[in-house]
Amino acid sequence: MWWLKPLAPAGFARTSSHGLLRRTIAGSNCSSSSSSSSSTSVFTAAAPFSTTSSDHKGATRYPPRPKPPPDHEFTEVYLKGSGPGGQKINKTNSAVQLKHIPTGIVVKCQDTRSREQNRKLAREHLAEKIDDLLNGDQSRSAVVARLKARKKSSAAKKSRRKHRDSAEEKQQGEHDEDDEAPLGSGEADEAAQHDDTPRRIVKVQEIRV
């Protein structure tokens, strides 16, 4: 029913189902050209919500994954899997082995029972190996390892600082309790001996009749 549909604000037109709004402004002075004809400027506003990782503050940004080499640079062989995983792995050629011709790098993948999935994973592993060989410390795996180690070290320091502050607060509370505790009989006598406040001594004499 048309009266139940939400209406766009004045001057805006809805262009898609993702909440994109388009505003059209017409006028003779909108363009910097010398012609006096009217021109049109279009502004497109994206939806205010997004699920990308860049919107999450504090999220660690890893470098992009390297792209697999073209198919003509490596050979692909299907092998029978080995190890645990059922009879299907041992009887079918689901394992994938790739050999990169320029570098001689060989990778084998049998992570899943699906040959197509293993082919995809094998290409990703091969791309990582080539990236490690060519870029060394600047490869993606090396950068990710450093970022994870830095994050782990930061979390450990934060945990130690938290425990240290908690121990100091507990120790300070114990000292405050000791200061507020009442004095015992021995401590009271000792305090009286060290008290230099002058006292008035009154002598009482007994008179017998």
From TrEMBL:
Instruction: Please list where the region (Disordered) is annotated.
Output: 49-73, 145-209
Alphabetical list of SUPFAM superfamilies matching this protein: Release factor
Which key words tag this protein in UniProt?
A: Mitochondrion, Transit peptide
Please list the residue ranges that the record marks as compositionally biased, kind Basic residues: 147-164
Quote the biased-composition stretches of kind Basic and acidic residues, using this chain's numbering: 165-174, 191-209
Q: Prokaryotic-type class I peptide chain release factors domain location, by residue?
A: 72-165
Q: Does the keyword Acetylation apply?
A: no
Molecular function in Gene Ontology: translation release factor activity
- Looking at the UniProt record for this protein, which Gene Ontology cellular component terms does it annotate, in alphabetical order? mitochondrion
Q: What GO biological process term is on the record, naming one? A: mitochondrial translation
Which compartment or compartments is the protein found in?
A: Mitochondrion
Question: Pfam families in the record, alphabetically?
Answer: RF-1
The keyword Ion transport belongs to this UniProt entry's keyword annotation: no
The Swiss-Prot or TrEMBL record describes its family as follows: Belongs to the prokaryotic/mitochondrial release factor family.
Q: Which PANTHER family match?
A: MITOCHONDRIAL TRANSLATION RELEASE FACTOR IN RESCUE, PROBABLE PEPTIDE CHAIN RELEASE FACTOR C12ORF65
Protein's name according to its UniProt entry: Prokaryotic-type class I peptide chain release factors domain-containing protein
Provenance organism: Phomopsis amygdali
